[in-house]
Amino acid sequence: MLNLSSFIAKRYFASKKKKNFIQVLSWISVIGVAIGTAALIVVLSVFNGLQDFVRSVYNSFDAPLTIQASVGKSFEMTPELRAKVESIEGVNIVTEVIEDNALILFQDQQVVAKIKGVDSNYASVNRLDTFLVRGKMKLKEGDINYAILGTGVAYNLSLRIDVNSYGMQIVYPKKLRPGMPVTNNSITRKSIVPAAIFNIEPVYNESYVFVPLSFAQDLMDYENKRTSIELYLDEGVSINKIKEEVSSRLGDGFEVLDSDELHSSLLKAIKIEKLFAYITLSFIMAIASFNIFFTLSMLAIEKKRDISVLYSFGATAQFIRQIFLKQGSIISLVGSVIGLLAGLALCLLQQKFGLVSMGMQSAVMNAYPVKLEVTDFIMVGVSIFLITILISYRPAIIASRVETVKNLN
Q: Taking a C-beta distance cutoff of 8 angstroms, is the pair 78, 397 a contact?
């Protein structure tokens, strides 16, 4: 009986007779499911790609591990503290960092940017020099301090390395006691020479300026304080193992973070947006799938005589329901297969040719990134299955309640 119900459902879907209105509705339903399925696959793959893109961007700047204070934004840097970290097997280079916001002045322009003071060994371990679009990678030569600016910061200051390389100043407010008035003596102003401009992506391009650690130390009056320590590791070592070792040696006063943990709020936001996109598109696909409901309802009306004949041959109400549920399943299956293949093809074309641009300048990636994951295909398949069952159930119930005698006359 199960095979017979499947055979009848297939005949209703793909009859060789002259096409009628119900078959047209069936194919409209197939197209609706296909479009919804393809949209789900593409959107979910784009969110996967964006997550990987964000990771790749931050990995260009971030060290494998970063040490920060558990409380407050800075901590005291001592020779003992540095020795504890450097003595850990697998730690290659330790870079001290001072990072805070400051005001940059150049001629008549000004902009607030994030000043990052780094050790002299920073250039040897970070890939910043590979993203330079103008100038040379240098932070200090003799007594002269140099700055490396993002393209967005340089643009807002109307600064060009090859034309006007002098006259840039960085202003930082001093620590004031409550109630003290703000005067010219309340700020620290230091001059620095722009040496290069880098271009990675807007988050960094529009906010970061790299300066020597000693310059940031004097500007912000940090003395022996640091905002973080960046650890660059030997190739092939386990980041998690080193992280655990550093945490156990430093104690509760410090937290050791990898790149994902440093930007956990952004990565979490992408995951939440992906979830809401999935729910929203599934809801839209459910509405589009109402064509299946109307198709099966019309089919139940048209096939009343056929149903009555089946009842006269001993068919049960459950058997009739199975026919219509399978009819809905066939429509969804055909539509979902077409949609999955279309979504897969679009994603592969985007990966290879970059058909859709992100609309921004980036040295890492210009086209929208996409990444196909098996879990997305499973999620979409589950959604289609549940929607099909819910949509097909009511018409199947209606079809099973046909009055046999009346329709045979």
A: no
